[in-house]
Design goal:
This protein is mainly beta and about 220 residues long. It has strands at about 5-10, 10-15, 20, 45, 50, 55-60, 75, 80-90, 95-105, 110, 125, 130-135, 140, 145, 150-155, 160-165, 175, 185, 200-205, 210. It has two domains: about 1-115, Kelch-type beta propeller (Neuraminidase); about 115-224, Kelch-type beta propeller (Neuraminidase), CATH 2.120.10.
């Protein structure tokens, strides 16, 4: 449904968050896989499942997120031990700035330092050296206000710092980072008025955003 996020372990895929139709979700917050393929009007947040690739079936992770959330950002640490669930919105539609971390060894969730701003539909990416996580754009005010803002989590100091804002507001933005960690890309999205063809790049060393050549088509929610 566009609000589900997946990360890959060595032999398994982990999906978390999202939403499914209210009358098809169990009281525990789980949902069958077919529910993920349907757009639904009435929604309830679902929690975390895990799929073993060889067997091809879904299993519930031993432990739920502390806050059910959709529209979140998800990244995995370089050593594959930690999964970060960042922002999103809860079952009431309220935007979140909270961050949770899943330990794949102990199968437990803990809260991490929250972001400076509430965000849903934002892009997240981890630096190649595994030391920083970027949260880019998104929206708040129940999805009504698209955001320019960008912030970074330092995984050594566990603090969020605001970065120079993008040139364009972008929610449902596609993001990527260069192999050397020096260029951060924000591609397409929606600025609250319409979908975007524009793309821009952040130069980490110079702390500056510049526009890139436009896409051939307007895109939001694109993979990058």
């Amino acid at each position: 449904v566009g609000l589900l996020h997946v990360v890959l372990l060595t032999d398994r895929s982990v999906e978390m968050g999202g939403w499914a139709s209210r009358n098809r979700v169990s009281p525990s917050g789980e949902a069958p896989i077919k529910e993920h393929k349907r757009s639904v009007k009435h929604a309830k947040i679902i929690r975390s499942n895990l799929m073993a690739m060889e067997s091809g079936f879904w299993q519930t992770l031993p432990g739920c997120m502390r806050k059910a959330r959709g529209g979140l950002g998800v990244v995995m640490s370089k050593n594959k031990k930690w999964i970060y669930a960042i922002g999103g919105y809860n079952h009431k539609g309220e935007d979140l700035r909270s961050v949770e971390v899943y330990n794949t060894e102990t199968c437990t969730w803990t809260f991490a330092q929250p972001m400076n701003h509430k965000r849903r539909g934002h892009g997240v990416v981890i630096s190649p050296d595994g030391k920083k996580i970027y949260a880019i754009g998104g929206s708040n005010r129940r999805g009504m206000r698209a955001l320019f803002s960008v912030e970074v989590l330092d995984l050594e100091t566990h603090t969020w710092t605001m970065l120079p804002r993008m040139k364009s507001k972008r929610r449902n933005v596609g993001v990527a980072i260069s192999p050397d960690g020096q260029l951060l890309y924000a591609v397409g999205g929606n600025d609250g008025c319409g979908d975007l063809r524009s793309a821009e790049v952040y130069h980490v060393k110079h702390q500056k955003w510049t526009y890139l050549p436009e896409l051939g088509y307007k895109r939001r929610g694109a993979g990058v």
